[in-house]
Amino acid sequence: MRNSPLTVAYGAGVDSTAMLVGFVQRGIRWNLALFADPGSEWPETYAYLKTINAWIRERGFPEIVTVRYVPKKAPYSTLEGELAKNATLPSMAFGWKSCSMKWKLEPQNAYKESWPPAIAAWAAGKKVVTAVGLDAGKSDSRRACRYWGAAQEDPLYETWHPLRDWGWDRERCKAEIAKAGLPIPHKSACTFCPSAHEEEIVELSENHPDLFRRAIAIEDRAVAGKHKIGSKSVKGLGRRWSWRSFAEKIGIIRRTA
């Protein structure tokens, strides 16, 4: 595997950060680390990118490169812009993963397609190895063969889950990050992610009220839009429930008439 270029899919969360820490500990040098930015991450995540890049730079490893999905003709440049234009919700609200594929996986692969080491590897009949931060805990064990795992059968890429090889679960990942002198990163996700828990919605409303209002606006547009969201099984950003109803219930926003 080490005869092939080693790339890192860096999500700026606990697992992917622990993976970089483990690589530095073991002297495993990656050739390229990519962070795919949908334009809608929490501000804490963007701040952490500066922190981790400074840490990486001090140790002489390649810094993280930020990549973005670039629509060919669409009048938007972020996932939030796409949702606004189409008056809909993120695909996860409907049980799909297309937003992750479009805004996370595709821009990373597009970058690699013009990256000289990848081109040289493919010309030599080799694959490009992509290291993905799925830990050894039960939750990520169920995810290991989904999404990124599908790339195992890709003729161009081989997916590697080093945290699972090392036996690092979530708590071990946090411990190794702290031992490396790094702060524990905030959960990496869009500020309007349908997988957000109620306490995360409250946190968003308290720490980033403007972003919270924008998330509610995404839901309101989708409910009022042509797809009739809210009248079917999908009620809002929470899929089976709406963020607005939750926020009104606990008094974050004033109940509508």
Question: Can you tell me about this structure?
Answer:
The protein has 257 residues and is α/β, with parallel strands linked by helices. The chain folds into two domains: 6-179, HUPs (Rossmann fold), CATH 3.40.50; 198-249, no CATH class. Helix content is 45%, strand content 9%. It contains eleven helices and five strands. It has helices at residues 14-26, 43-58, 79-86, 98-113, 116-123, 138-143, 162-166, 170-179, 198-207, 209-224, 243-249, and strands at residues 6-9, 32-36, 64-67, 128-132, 157-160. A five-stranded parallel beta sheet has the order 3-2-1-4-5. Strand 4 (128-132), helix 6 and strand 5 (157-160) form a beta-alpha-beta unit. The N and C termini lie far apart (61 Å). The model is unreliable at 147-151 (pLDDT under 50).
Q: What percent strand? A: 5-15%
Per CATH, the superfamily of the largest domain is HUPs
The major pleated sheet works out as: 5 strands, parallel
Query: How many β-strand stretches?
Result: 5
Summarize the structure.
This protein is α/β, with parallel strands linked by helices and 257 residues long. It folds into two domains: 6-179, 3-Layer(aba) Sandwich (Rossmann fold); 198-249, no CATH class. The chain has eleven helices and five strands.
